[in-house]
Specification:
334 residues, 17 helices, 0% strand
């Protein structure tokens, strides 16, 4: 990746070796919050993707929800730091509890549907754990992030999880509504009959996610080393940022790139198979035009997004916000 801390020059951060847990974890938490708020900003959605202004009405709920979740990102980053400094083992970070905690915080901080954020939660929590781990290896924020470490450690935290983590996730999934059946498929599966069976099993969350990876883009990502985020996603973001030096354009370009490569499992699970197919096909056409890096691509993007009013590809949305988190973590600034 081309993120080497060059955007940190005007930030007054402690650069002493072995920075405090609080400073490290708070930095990761802030980056996660910034990424989430940028992703759901009405200025981003309306100005770049030209979506329905009605979305503005729900923006305050999204702000409260994302800031509420930041406490879990902080907690996750702190636990990642503790693992790197050998105060905790991987299996002791309680990944399942962190997932459940983030979900509860969304509900506590706003009156809207917390399920909207469930895909973000599944991706961002292990990434925050890994970010805490990676950033603890440095003696300065300005030294630039090591993307390979974050990708490896995020996958490692999932692989080293234990049956208690699976139980916590299953219990959370059972609370999801009908509109989020793509995420609840694991809880509904008759693979294991009861919570007691999960507790007695030797399943990790990696095993659990693999059970439904072919039906769900988010679970596939979690069980496949975050390949979409770290390859397609970050490549598209960096391509756009290097050309435009504009974070909002880079987010929109990344979104379109992912939309052109992957069929959204949320849309398919909710009966929008044809919409998912058309989004994929038209997304490819827009990216062939240059995406948001050309005038022709921008026009194509506006037409594509206008054709999708009322239909949100939430899996692609969550993958995009995870890419944004890593870019902000790596020093990208407006």
């Amino acid at each position: 990746m081309g993120f080497h801390g060059k955007h940190f020059d005007d930030i007054n951060l402690d650069s002493t070796p072995q920075m405090s847990f609080g400073a490290l974890a708070n930095y990761v938490s802030r980056c996660a919050s910034i990424a989430m708020n940028l992703h759901y900003s009405p200025l981003l959605l309306q100005g770049i993707l030209n979506l329905d202004p009605q979305l503005w009405k729900s923006y305050p709920q999204k702000v409260f929800a994302t800031i509420g979740m930041s406490a879990t990102f902080f907690d996750a980053a702190k636990r990642g730091i503790l693992v790197q400094r050998e105060y905790l083992n991987y299996f002791e970070v309680e990944l399942g509890m962190l997932y459940s905690q983030a979900y509860k915080q969304v509900g506590e901080w706003q009156s809207g549907n917390p399920n909207r954020f469930i895909r973000n939660i599944f991706l961002m929590v292990p990434l925050s754990l890994a970010a805490g781990y990676e950033i603890s290896t440095r003696d300065s924020f300005k030294s630039g992030i090591n993307i390979k470490i974050i990708q490896h450690e995020a996958s490692q935290f999932i692989a080293e999880s234990i049956p208690d983590d699976v139980v916590a996730v299953v219990e959370m999934l059972f609370t999801l509504g009908e509109n989020d059946k793509d995420m609840g498929v694991l809880a509904d599966a008759k693979i294991v009959q009861s919570i007691e069976d999960f507790e007695k099993s030797e399943l990790s969350l990696l095993d659990f996610f693999k059970m439904s990876g072919i039906h769900n883009l988010v679970y596939e990502e979690l069980s496949n080393n975050f390949e979409i985020i770290f390859n397609t996603g970050l490549h598209s973001f960096e391509e756009a940022f290097n050309e435009t030096n504009d974070i909002v354009t880079s987010i929109g370009h990344t979104y379109l790139s992912l939309l052109s490569e992957y069929k959204d499992s949320y849309l398919i699970a909710n009966g929008f198979d044809e919409a998912a197919r058309k989004a994929l096909s038209r997304g490819k056409e827009v990216m062939d035009m240059g995406g948001l890096l050309t005038d022709e691509g921008k026009k194509g993007a506006r037409d594509l997004i206008n054709s999708m009013k009322g239909i949100t590809p939430r899996s692609i949305e969550a993958l995009t916000s995870s890419v944004t988190f890593l870019a902000v973590l790596g020093g990208i600034r407006p």
